[in-house]
Each structure stands twice: as structure tokens, then as C-alpha cells.
Specification:
The complex is a heterodimer of chains A (566) and B (142). Chain A has 21 helices and 9 strands. With 566 residues, chain A is of the alpha/beta class. Chain A has a domain of 385 residues: TIM Barrel. In chain A, strands 5-4-3-2-1-9-8-7-6 form a 9-stranded parallel beta sheet. The mean pLDDT of chain A is 96. With 142 residues, chain B is an alpha/beta fold. Chain B has one domain: Rossmann fold (3-Layer(aba) Sandwich), CATH 3.40.50.280. Chain B has a 5-stranded parallel beta sheet, with helices on both faces. Classes of the chains: A alpha/beta (566), B alpha/beta (142).
């Protein structure tokens, strides 16, 4: 039996006084009824008018809340949290050419950003070079175009790769882009053992939500496990997967679905690592997570607190991890792109501020705050600076960083944290029953759960049950901002030309040998001897382009296309 | 022309953009409004979209795109429809477009562009009002 928050006699009095309050409340509503027929979160989770110690009467402080930096880490992954070190301010950036993006990186660093985060354009994300017919019209539009190790060099020019950590949002081609990053860093004189950063490398949520699709699930998992294995042995400061709820949420899921599906993806990656023969405590500490911070303030904080406790318990109980670092849910957060409006775009600053504050109170390790113009396209310098300044004001002016996990003990927050964990656990049970995430994806289960939630939310918006200022309340017309970034269509030809020139000057024998070795490893059974990473690093050094490596993957492993269900 | 035939609509996502929330939501709304809906998933080339539209004998194509690559894919789709003698298939678009691009898209024959915040009801009403089943027209054209 745990230690209860309240004694029996206190609970009795609580019940009596609660009943008195409830009678009074109901009477008052006779005169003026509640404003809404039903009060619920943005995820449509019903919220009561008042929470009291009764809502957390079962609570065992030591088992469930505890201390920051101690199991089950509900209050934070470090003992010091923001008293010692603020979260990493990491703005997702990528536009046009590698030179354009490098310039943006320097701009952000010069304005106080503390970590880098790279956005790639769609061809790069999907494993095509800029000269592919499938890439027409896409070059540099939604991120930076990276075809070769030379592009990687230009992207990180004059940035100290042993001092700055870099996150790269790249999934099916993650192994290749990471190989380019390592090859370039070593060319620049840095040591792979000192490189810190993250590749998103979360193939499962691609099938579920983000739809950057290339290979079927099983070989995708094999490649992810290759990177985990390689990172464990050779790049120990690297986060080899950023297990991402962000995109699941943007696709329309509820907060609980985001939590549950993402944690289950995490379970799957741990199982794959163990199947490869790795000890859980050797690699689990390098798994990181990525949450969305949506507009419903308390729901997000509760979700993040619940995520830490849930992951810690799973790692300890399900996977028998011993090292506390294996149990840490370390996560990046991005404010919710889908909560922003094209109407009255300046209001997006307010939304982002609220969501950023939730991420901080939720205990995030790094944060991207959306720019007010991200609803139209990738941000302009003017807008991104406001977004970065938003984090800095929250950090340095508001006082919210003075104290660790300030909302702990709130009857509402603790009850909502419990609710998140309970409902996510129910989904985890269901996914276990379905035979795991790959089977569930094949049955379209998480995809349809999300589609249902997205449609439900849209219907609520149309019925006026969920309000969006400027859209369905105080509706106004869209007008263009004075600073909207334009990506020049002519960079496509420039990028195609230089990738072609790069290919012409490579040593054809060395390139051929490297690609043969990569193919041999891909065709062989998964093992350290057949790990693709060493072969990829040699291949990109020998001049292989991203698409050439991806084409080889597609040939050996097959192609996955979107089934197009709705 | 058979009377009361259901409108057939192809919901398509051109290019490499994977943002399919809008496409899937609008596909459901069209279905709930009584249309026959074909949705081909993400990552369709203009060639695939036009070929599906013809094979499936649709009356209208709804293109959803959020990547900014509409400057290539929308004109290409209109060109291919013309080459296939299928200009009578109407085309509408939804997603994110710079304001200055919208008149240009209408000039090349895109019938309507629905921007962020457009109501599902308004979109389905627009289609019901403005689009007729094309069978009879198509026969005449051939």
C-alpha cells in the first residue's frame, strides 16, 4: 500500500463539502446555464467543472509523482531541469539551396538559437535527387535539397559540429543522410564519437501519418535497427531515432492517440533492437521522442507528464531495463502547425506562445516554436525571429523556468495525467492484441483511428462546437502578409546541374565497388557484418547520391505505396 | 444521359507532399454528400492522376496540395487533360496557395480554389451546384 495524499477523515469532509458546492453550482446554473453543452479538450476529452483531492485520492506520491530525475520521472528527466540548463532552442529550418539554409542556420545561431534542426525538401525526404522527373517543381520548396555529400558540406559550412547538435527530419533515407552527415563531419576534421544530434528515422509513423513512404515496414525496420546498432557502437552521442507523435497529431489524432501510437512505435523499436542482439541498456538511452504541443494547454502538459511515467514503467517492467537512462523519455516539442490559421495570421503568435508555454511546463528538452507565417509556407526571417524570441521571452522574462514542474499536485493536472496514461495503456493493450504495430498498420488500424478523429474534429468545427478565432468565430478574410518567403523556381536547374557535375567527376571504380558492397550488405541477413552504415559512409564519400542509394534500397527491399484509404 | 447518376469525383494528391489530412477529410465529406469517391493516396504524378480520372470516368478531380509544388503540377494536369481530350473533366483545388497564384490557377482552367478554413459543406455545395455528370458531354466530344 502506498502513502495516500489525504487521511480518511479529511476525505470524508471533502465529500461533504463537495456535495454542498455541487448543490450550489447546480442552483446557480438555474439562473445562468453553462456556456457550452459540453466542455471538452481539443481532443474531445470531457472536462468536469472542478477537480478536488478526491480525483487523486488513490494517488501514491512516491510511486506516481516523485522527484525530478527519479523514477518514474513524471516531474522531469533531470534533477535540475531548467534551473541548470534551459531546453535547446531548436528551430526547424530548411529552404532553397544548401547555401540558403546555411545562411538561415547562421542567422538563427546569431540570434540565440542553441541547436540546429534541418528541414529537407520533398524529393530529399522521399529519396529522389533533384534531377528525378518525380521531383519537378519541388526543389527547395518545403526544405533544403540535399543530393550529395557536397550539398551536406555547404549546408553545415562554418558550423562547429562537435559543439552544436543537429537534428535532421529524415525518415526512409535516414541512414543515407546520416552517412552524408558523418562523412562530411569527418572530412571537416571532426570525430564521429563526438558528434551529437538526432535523425528522426521513425519509419513506423510514416505509414501511420506522415506518409513519407519508400520501403515496406519490415525492411524499413531493418534499416532503422542498423542505424541504432551503428550509433550504439560508433556514434554514442547520437539520438538514433526521434520517435514522433508530432505528425500523428498533425494528421488529426487526439492527444491520447498521439501518446499511445508513438509509445507503441517506441516499444517496436526496442523489440527490434533486442532481436538484433543488442542489450536494452546499451541502446535505449539514445532513443528520443518528439511531441506536438497543441492548443489545449492542460491536456498537453498532462500528456507530456504521462509520457514520461508511461515510458519509464514500460522500459522497467516490460523490457527489464536496469539503467535509469534507458527509462528516460527525453523529448523535443514543436507547437502545433495545424492549430494556426491563415486568417488574421498575427494571432498565430498568441497560439504559439501558449503552446510553447505548455511544452515548457511539460518539461521538454528542446523546442521549435512555429512562425506566424508557417501556415502559408516555410518561414521568412522576420517571422522566424518573432518565433525564436517567443521562446526566449518565455525562458528569461516570465519566471516559469524558476521552478521545476510547477503544476505537479494540481488536482486537475494530476487527474488528467492519470487519464492520459490510462487511455494510452488501453490502446497499447489493443495494439498488443492485434499482434504489434506492423500488423496493426497492415490492418489500417491506427490510420483509421486518426482519420476518424480528424473527421470528427472537422465536423465539430463546422457545427461550432470547437471554436477557432478568425475561422468560425469572428470569421475574417485571408490577406497576404507583407513578408512571405518565395522560393525561386530557377534553383531547380542550378541544383540539377551541380549534382550532374558532381557525378561526372567521381571515381567510377571506387563508386562501383562501394555500391556493390552496399548491395551485398542489403541482400544479406541483418547483422553487424551486414550493417549498411559503414558501406553507406564509403558510398557517399565515393560520390553516391541520395537517390542512387535509395534506388538500390527500392530494388532490394521493394516499394511501399500509400493504400489511399479514407 | 442517365438521370440522377451520382457524381464521380477523384480526390488526388499530386507530387511528393504527404500532408493528406485535408484530402482524406474532404474525401469522406464527398462520400457523405452522396458522391462516388475515388482516392488514390499520396504521391501521384500528374500522368497518374489524369489516367485514373479517365479510367474511372470521373466528372471532377479535386486536387489537394500543401507543398507549393502546384506551380508545376496543376498546369501539367490541365495540359494532360487537354492532350487526352478530356477537358470536360472539371478540376478544383484545395490547400495552401499564395494569394497571387490563385488567379493564375483559375486562368489555366482550375474551376475553383478552396483555401484553409473552407467549410466542407460549402465545398460539397459548390460541387453539387456547379458540376453535372459528364457522360453525355463526353460522348459528344468523341
Amino acid at each position: 500500500m502506498g502513502k495516500k495524499v489525504l487521511s480518511e477523515s479529511a476525505l470524508e469532509r471533502m465529500q461533504t463539502e463537495y456535495n454542498e458546492w455541487l448543490a450550489e453550482y447546480k442552483q446557480a446554473l438555474q439562473k445562468m446555464p453553462e456556456r457550452l453543452g459540453r466542455f471538452s479538450t481539443v481532443s474531445d476529452l470531457e472536462i468536469k467543472p472542478l477537480y478536488t483531492p478526491q480525483d487523486i485520492e488513490h494517488k501514491d506520491f512516491f510511486e506516481e509523482i516523485g522527484f525530478p530525475g527519479f523514477y518514474p520521472f513524471t516531474r522531469g528527466v533531470q534533477s535540475t531541469m531548467y534551473r541548470a540548463r534551459l531546453w535547446t532552442m531548436r528551430m526547424f529550418a530548411g529552404l532553397g539551396t544548401s547555401e540558403d539554409t546555411n545562411q538561415r542556420f547562421h542567422y538563427l545561431i546569431n540570434h540565440g538559437e542553441t541547436g540546429l534542426s534541418t528541414a529537407f525538401d520533398f524529393p530529399t525526404l522521399m529519396g529522389y535527387d533533384t534531377n528525378s522527373p518525380l521531383a519537378r517543381g519541388e526543389c527547395g520548396k518545403c526544405g533544403v535539397a540535399i543530393d550529395t555529400v557536397e550539398d551536406m558540406q555547404r549546408l553545415f559550412a562554418n558550423i562547429n559540429l562537435e559543439k552544436v547538435t543537429t537534428s535532421m527530419t529524415i525518415n526512409p533515407p535516414a541512414s543515407i543522410v546520416w552517412a552524408m552527415y558523418i562523412a562530411n563531419a569527418e572530412n571537416e576534421g571532426y570525430s564521429r564519437s563526438k558528434l551529437g544530434g538526432t535523425i528522426q528515422n521513425d519509419c513506423l509513423k510514416e505509414f501511420i501519418a506522415q506518409k513519407t513512404l519508400m520501403l515496406p515496414p519490415e525492411p524499413s525496420l531493418r534499416l532503422v535497427t542498423d542505424t541504432v546498432e551503428f550509433g550504439t557502437r560508433e556514434v554514442p552521442r547520437w539520438n538514433t531515432i526521434s520517435i514522433s507523435g508530432y505528425h500523428i497529431r498533425e494528421a488529426g489524432s487526439t492527444a491520447v492517440q498521439e501518446l499511445a501510437f508513438t509509445i507503441y512505435d517506441g516499444i517496436t523499436y526496442v523489440e527490434e533492437g533486442i532481436k538484433r542482439g543488442l542489450a536494452v541498456d546499451d541502446f535505449a538511452g539514445r532513443l528520443s521522442f518528439f511531441w506536438n504541443s497543441h492548443i489545449d494547454f492542460f491536456e498537453e502538459i498532462a500528456k507530456m507528464r504521462a509520457s514520461r511515467r508511461l515510458w519509464a514503467r514500460l522500459m522497467k517492467e516490460r523490457f527489464k531495463a536496469k539503467d535509469p537512462r534507458s527509462m528516460l523519455m527525453r523529448f523535443h516539442t514543436q507547437t502545433a502547425g495545424c492549430s494556426l490559421t491563415a486568417q488574421e495570421p498575427y494571432n498565430n503568435i498568441i497560439r504559439t506562445t501558449t503552446e510553447g508555454l505548455a511544452a515548457i511546463l511539460g518539461g521538454t528538452q528542446s523546442l521549435h516554436t512555429n512562425s506566424l507565417d508557417e501556415v502559408y509556407m516555410i518561414p521568412s526571417e522576420e517571422a522566424v525571429l518573432i518565433a525564436l524570441r517567443t521562446q526566449q521571452i518565455l525562458a528569461d522574462e516570465t519566471g516559469v523556468t524558476n521552478v521545476i514542474d510547477p503544476l505537479a499536485g494540481s488536482y486537475f493536472i494530476e487527474a488528467l495525467t492519470d487519464k492520459m496514461e490510462e487511455e494510452a495503456t488501453e490502446y497499447i493493450r489493443k495494439l498488443d492484441e492485434l499482434g504489434g504495430m506492423v500488423r496493426a498498420i497492415e490492418r489500417d488500424y491506427p490510420q483509421m483511428e486518426i482519420a476518424d478523429a480528424a473527421y470528427h474534429f472537422q465536423q465539430q468545427v463546422e457545427a461550432g462546437e470547437k471554436l477557432i478565432i478568425g475561422v468560425n468565430k469572428y470569421a475574417s478574410e485571408r490577406r497576404e502578409l507583407e513578408f512571405v518567403l518565395k522560393i525561386d523556381d530557377t534553383i531547380e536547374k542550378m541544383q540539377v546541374d551541380r549534382t550532374n557535375q558532381f557525378k561526372e567527376k567521381r571515381n567510377k571504380d571506387r563508386y562501383r565497388r562501394a555500391m556493390d558492397e552496399l548491395r551485398r550488405r542489403c541482400e544479406g541477413p541483418p547483422s553487424w557484418e551486414n550493417n549498411v552504415m559503414p558501406a553507406l559512409i564509403e558510398a557517399v564519400r565515393a560520390g553516391a547520391t541520395e537517390q542512387e542509394c535509395c534506388d538500390l534500397y527500392r530494388e532490394v527491399f521493394g516499394v511501399y505505396t500509400d493504400p489511399g484509404t479514407f | 444521359m442517365e438521370k440522377g447518376r451520382k457524381l464521380r469525383i477523384l480526390v488526388a494528391k499530386p507530387g511528393l507532399d504527404g500532408h493528406d489530412r485535408g484530402a482524406r477529410v474532404i474525401a469522406r465529406a464527398f462520400r457523405d454528400a452522396g458522391f462516388e469517391v475515388v482516392y488514390t493516396g499520396c504521391h501521384q504524378t500528374p500522368e497518374q492522376i489524369v489516367s485514373t480520372a479517365i479510367q474511372e470516368d470521373v466528372d471532377i478531380i479535386g486536387l489537394s496540395i500543401l507543398s507549393g509544388a502546384h506551380t508545376y503540377s496543376f498546369p501539367r494536369i490541365m495540359e494532360l487533360l487537354k492532350e487526352s481530350n478530356a477537358q470536360d473533366i472539371s478540376v478544383i483545388g484545395g490547400g495552401i496557395f499564395p494569394l497571387e497564384d490563385i488567379p493564375k490557377l483559375k486562368e489555366i482552367g482550375i474551376k475553383e480554389i478552396f483555401e484553409p478554413g473552407a467549410k466542407l459543406q460549402d465545398i460539397t455545395d459548390w460541387v453539387t451546384t456547379n458540376i453535372q455528370p459528364r457522360q453525355a458531354v463526353a460522348l459528344k466530344a468523341r
